[in-house]
Amino acid sequence: MSLLVDVVAFGADPTGQADSAPAVAAALRHARSLGQPTRIVFSEGTFQLYPEQAETRELYVSNTVGADPRYRDKKIGLLVEDMHDVTIDGRGAKLVYHGLQTAFAAIRSSDATFTNFSFDYAAPKVIDVTVTETGVTDGRAYRVLTIPIGSPYAVADNHITWLGELSPATGRPYWSGVDGLEYTQLHDPAAQRTWRGDNPLFTDVAAITDLGRRRIRIDYTTGTPPRDLGLVYQLRQIEREEPGAFIWESKNVTLRSINAHYLQTFGVVGQLSENLTIDQVNFAPDPATGRTTASFADFVQLSGIKGDVTITGNVFDGPHDDPINIHGTYLEVIGQPGPQTLTLSYEHPQTAGFPQFYPGDEVELVNKLTLFPLDNGRAVVTAVDGPSGKDHSKPLTTMTVTFDRPLPTGIELGGTVAENITYTPTVVISGNTFRNVPTRGVLVTTRKPVLISDNRFEAMSMASIYISSDAYQWYESGPVTDVTIRDNHFVDPAGPVIFVEPTNRSIDPASPVHRNITVARNTFEIADVTIVNAKSVAGFHFTNNTVQRLDGSDAQPLFVFHGCTDVQS
């Protein structure tokens, strides 16, 4: 039976008046000290959580800020660390985070469950600007923009400064930026579609006026009438300082029955962990806020997971990048100090600083040009000298790995990459809804079985399902060998709907990157788009699907195959 730890007993304030961060941290530290199965509970109410007294850890997180020393230290609102058999039960609580911090994390823990709470950020680092009025006055165009609550700003000298909420400790904003910031995507509430695009709001500006009541008028030097009435411009910077949530070196972690209204500066990151379940999580903005963005980037980014990944019954609505991305990481071979030893390097600047291999893991060596494994290219790790993931005492972008046997011939420095094939999961993605997505819906590359079933993809702006294996840009590994895509509903998608695009520069049908992809019993409601574009696959079967045209045009081919064999369509 689990011991009960109530955060209110440690001073957490369910009225939302006081900062509950120190009390919540104290309750979690006490729970860890018990060394027994524990249930940490909140109560119905609102809990404010500021970063100044949150737990702080030096951490390095995949697909974020790499080895950048400015962002070593992470603030964490709910930290489950070195704990086993623990549940965070919100009992209907609403958690309001302030500043830049990770909402919750499980580090070196097992059998950890997060459930029954909602969370949001008081001042998201995405500004959702709605065009509520347009016109031309005295030969000059203008727009009136409406800004949601929780996006502080100041207007001066014909510029808008976004202030990102003031810290009660310092009196200074947690972050700030000017005008269009660094990145824009657009959302059409009427069409329920979101896409990446240019930002014309701050081009050819003659004057910017604060009209009060969170309304801003921008007058322009040109007379061209704006054609974007009703659209929402979602503005943000690009640095991913903190993961929205973080699961690292943990086992049997469950997120269930949560309203995740916003993830600050990145999504839920699972890294070098085992068995992860995400069930009945509502990744969507709170309608009461007037916002349309629910994540600064991806919703779920899983980098190096083993065991089972189960993602079921969720809503993914309003990210700034892919809702689900499941992959490993290719490290490039940059040296061979001995016959059983390699020096490996993280190649993408967003990923560095944490271990990629542990003794006992199996590694596969792959030719970058073909993405085909080297002959006799598998070996087991016996020792690793590299970054720890929790300090910077060693180089953060390279590591030396020793194996249990002499390595094969054919290794090329800069031309060979290594993948940890122990940390590749079996994946089930079922019963989810994807909408208002500017990018792809599901990205997955794992050699274990993958089932994508009974999902609804609404008006995706890029491929609904994307399978890559990339040793040139993102270095997200590896091949798939058993993928089933069935009983899904694709509504008005961009094309190709299913896109298989490994980065192999040399294509040989006798040496495919991917194998055994089945697409069956799905419904495609499409305009003039390609359904399948696939490269370097042995065994692609498209059977018993329903295709409904939304209009009469059919200029685009339904199927495109490059270097594939055993194709049925």
Q: Mind describing the biggest β-sheet?
A: 32 strands, mixed
Q: Termini distance?
A: 54 Å
Question: What is the β-strand count?
Answer: 48
| Mean pLDDT, all residues | 97
**Unreliable sequence segments:** none
Name the beta content range.
Answer: over 45%
Oligomer: single chain
Helix-strand makeup class: mainly beta
The 3D shape can be described as globular
Number of helices: 1
Radius of gyration: 24 Å
Helix content: under 10%
Descriptive notes:
The protein is built from 1 helix and 48 strands. It has 569 residues and is mainly beta. The protein has a 32-stranded mixed beta sheet that branches. It is globular. It starts with a strand and ends with a strand.
The gist of it:
The protein is mostly beta strands and 569 residues long.
What are its keywords?
569 residues; mainly beta; seven-stranded antiparallel β-sheet
SSE blueprint and pairings:
Blueprint: E1 3-6, E2 15-19, H1 21-34, E3 38-41, E4 46-49, E5 55-58, E6 73-81, E7 84-97, E8 102-107, E9 110-121, E10 126-137, E11 140-146, E12 153-156, E13 159-162, E14 177-178, E15 183-188, E16 193-196, E17 205-212, E18 215-220, E19 232-236, E20 245-248, E21 251-260, E22 268-283, E23 300-312, E24 315-317, E25 324-329, E26 331-338, E27 341-345, E28 362-367, E29 373-385, E30 398-403, E31 416-420, E32 425-430, E33 433-435, E34 442-444, E35 450-453, E36 456-458, E37 465-467, E38 476-477, E39 483-486, E40 489-491, E41 498-500, E42 514-520, E43 523-526, E44 532-535, E45 537-543, E46 546-549, E47 559-562, E48 565-568
